[in-house]
Amino acid sequence: MNENRPPPDWVGDVSVGVDAWTRRSSAPGTAAPPPDTVAQVPEADPEAVARKILLDQLTGQARTRKELADKLAAKNVPGDLAARLLDRFEEVGLIDDEAFARAWIASRGATRSDVGRRLAKRALAQELHRKGVANEVAREALDEIDPDDEAAAARGLVRAKLRSVERVDDVKATRRLVGMLARKGYGSGLAFAVVREELANAGREAVDEE
């Protein structure tokens, strides 16, 4: 390398250096810089994007209108476009809060195969409310629950827990079993009646502390 060679006249001046590089790149036989492919990508259609969001959310799982509306809002989909698409999805049956409520009750309520996770009407109503199901729609679906099924579910819960209270006295056993049913959404009247019946069947006595 010749250290005595004078530096280019653009050294120290960025703008002059850029001009020099540009002139070289445009010279014959010099490859041109690659095109800006990002600028050539067409802007996505907002409706197509929103529709894909909805279809992705509904793949393999039913959802309520409110859940889908919240998802669109989180993705900054304009409100008028979201409402129009949600209306259309309801028209074709892809969104059905009534069907959702019935399916949710079947999976979480008295007929659930997993006894330990069965919930009573009150707890189911709270869950449907959080899902955005209208109170009237939820009430109609909950009214279809057979009271005998709900009582049977409560008995199943108590029977599954009886072994856990074998070593405590009747007062504590009653309190724990009734409390367990209360957390599942069962009213105090039904809860105590079921606990009293099941403890009696086990040769014990439920103690009403009231």
UniProtKB/TrEMBL annotation:
<dbReference type="InterPro" id="IPR036388">
    <property type="entry name" value="WH-like_DNA-bd_sf"/>
</dbReference>
<feature type="domain" description="RecX second three-helical">
    <location>
        <begin position="96"/>
        <end position="142"/>
    </location>
</feature>
<dbReference type="InterPro" id="IPR003783">
    <property type="entry name" value="Regulatory_RecX"/>
</dbReference>
<dbReference type="InterPro" id="IPR053926">
    <property type="entry name" value="RecX_HTH_1st"/>
</dbReference>
<dbReference type="Pfam" id="PF21982">
    <property type="entry name" value="RecX_HTH1"/>
</dbReference>
<feature type="region of interest" description="Disordered">
    <location>
        <begin position="21"/>
        <end position="40"/>
    </location>
</feature>
<feature type="domain" description="RecX first three-helical">
    <location>
        <begin position="50"/>
        <end position="88"/>
    </location>
</feature>
<protein>
    <recommendedName>
        <fullName>Regulatory protein RecX</fullName>
    </recommendedName>
</protein>
<feature type="domain" description="RecX third three-helical">
    <location>
        <begin position="148"/>
        <end position="195"/>
    </location>
</feature>
<comment type="function">
    <text>Modulates RecA activity.</text>
</comment>
<keyword id="KW-0963">Cytoplasm</keyword>
<dbReference type="Pfam" id="PF02631">
    <property type="entry name" value="RecX_HTH2"/>
</dbReference>
<dbReference type="Pfam" id="PF21981">
    <property type="entry name" value="RecX_HTH3"/>
</dbReference>
<comment type="similarity">
    <text>Belongs to the RecX family.</text>
</comment>
<dbReference type="InterPro" id="IPR053924">
    <property type="entry name" value="RecX_HTH_2nd"/>
</dbReference>
<dbReference type="InterPro" id="IPR053925">
    <property type="entry name" value="RecX_HTH_3rd"/>
</dbReference>
